[in-house]
From TrEMBL:
Pfam families: DUF465. The lineage of its organism: Bacteria, Pseudomonadati, Pseudomonadota, Alphaproteobacteria, Sphingomonadales. Gene3D superfamilies: 6.10.280.50. This is DUF465 domain-containing protein. InterPro entries: DUF465 (IPR007420), DUF465_sf (IPR038444).
Length: 65
């Protein structure tokens, strides 16, 4: 993957991660929050965070000490 492609993918993943934050907060504020749906959204957020970390690692060059 080219650096520009990685940067675009990172931006999309970060936006989706923020959107999931908003969705989780909205569900929590609901009268009777759906705990299963909240758990699914949180799990998706964790997968996104892992993918973001992997892509960020690809942008950092390996330095041999």
């Amino acid at each position: 993957m080219e650096e520009s492609e990685i940067l675009r993918r990172l931006e999309l993943l970060r936006v989706e991660h923020r959107d999931l934050d908003v969705a989780v907060d909205a569900l929590r504020m609901a009268g009777a929050p759906d705990q299963l749906q909240i758990a699914r959204l949180k799990k998706r957020k964790l997968r996104l965070r892992d993918e973001i970390a992997l892509l960020e690692d690809q942008l950092i060059p390996d330095i041999i000490a």
